[in-house]
């Protein structure tokens, strides 16, 4: 999730073991440790733009790395803050351990994919129960941890933990409801689906995106899950077949290998951009959940050398006219 969400959840976890006089210290240390795993964004290559995708949410987010990641954070924060605050190393490490431990688990609650089981598996865990940014999850936690630190009252910590548990549980419930809607939609269409995903749309748990594969096509739709459910039919696109769609591409080339790397990153949901035959899109994400309008993809070069990489691209992040229709879907 976004850095602020990671920070407030890390702080919340650290506050659960902080005594009243050290609640503020636990908050700061837990917040910093809660964000630390995302330092993997520094791993990149000017010639291989997919390297950053491969190593984001990689070893630094795995369960087995938590004690070591926490130790690195503790050593740094103890040197910078612990002695100045007259805080012993043991509680510093414990605050870091709890804060760091929340990071990969919270990321796994989103749909991006997190390698929790590295090095035993490179499977990208994605439980799809919360959007990558959700103010309704983050802001109440932020308010509660600030109140706990400022007033030195653990009651606010308990409220923060309860809010976190309740909101994520609501995400689990909404995910199950969305899956029921998806299966019903697939049945009504007479499709046979072998790959179905449902995920919350941007910044809310009301409107969900439905994605599924039937034969050689991917289909998207959206549903609003209030007291009752509403469905918006979506669009479809042919799944990528490298031999059919990119017959010009040498199978031994680096670009062909990069396509398979991107397929792994995208959980298989890749297709040829209908507007550009040299672009491959990750169709899991779009501002409007019932549309195929990808946020990112990779760009091929038919004149590239055999060892040349593809180029990852992302659509510009600016105010979008699609935000208004999404808000309308949420309000309905």
TrEMBL record:
The keyword Cell cycle does not apply. GO terms for molecular function: hydrolase activity. Keywords: Hydrolase, Membrane, Transmembrane, Transmembrane helix. The chain crosses the membrane at residues 59-81, 93-113, 125-148, 155-173. This is Metal-dependent hydrolase.
